[in-house]
């Protein structure tokens, strides 16, 4: 299994991102646009996971207790080097705490935490291959003003399984973990 832990987006935010994607997308941009079902805020990527690790992961994540997490997106940006258009996520103290608690719990299951700072984002589009960054550069010119996104409160986080395919990754929810503080 190829797993990751993430927060689903509120329907209002998904609708806002869909409108932005429709406005920016063109048939000749050379980009692969992500489907709304793939949008999420990653807390930790686990990668290839054995059954024993899966069982540990589910157990440890069910032991986490934290109140719901307020979330807001910061605006659109591009990773030029990797050819990605994204919507940034504001790292509130509550989001940072949840991400740190998830990483600590996953260490107990044999997963190493990221050595990079936590910078969550939602991937909207990516270049189709190496040398295809032109589409991303052209998109940057189309973003004349930053959108204002609705704020929302995450009441749960999810354990996803990722399936790689020719058209990109497909995700299935394996487990749900409520944020209730109890």
CATH topology, by name, is Cyclic Phosphodiesterase, Chain: A
Which architecture name does CATH use? Alpha-Beta Complex
Q: How many angstroms separate the termini?
A: 30 Å
Overall number of structural domains: 1
Q: Give average pLDDT, whole number.
A: 90
The shape is globular
CATH H-level homologous superfamily name: Cyclic phosphodiesterase
Outline the low-pLDDT stretches: none
Fraction in helix:
25-40%
Order of helical and strand elements: EHEEHEEEHEHEEE
Portion in beta strands = 35-45%
Main β sheet profile: 4 strands, antiparallel
Strand order of the largest sheet: 3-1-9-10
Radius of gyration: 17 Å
User: Which class do the helix and strand fractions yield?
Assistant: alpha+beta
Question: What would CATH call the class?
Answer: Alpha Beta
Could you explain how this protein is built, in words?
By secondary structure, the protein is an alpha+beta fold. The protein has a single domain, classed as Cyclic Phosphodiesterase, Chain: A. It has four helices and ten strands, in the order E-H-E-E-H-E-E-E-H-E-H-E-E-E. The strands form three sheets. Strands 3-1-9-10 form a four-stranded antiparallel sheet. A four-stranded antiparallel sheet has the order 2-7-6-5, with helices on one face. A two-stranded antiparallel sheet has the order 4-8. Strand 5 (73-79) and strand 6 form a beta hairpin. The protein starts with a strand and ends with a strand. The mean pLDDT is 90.
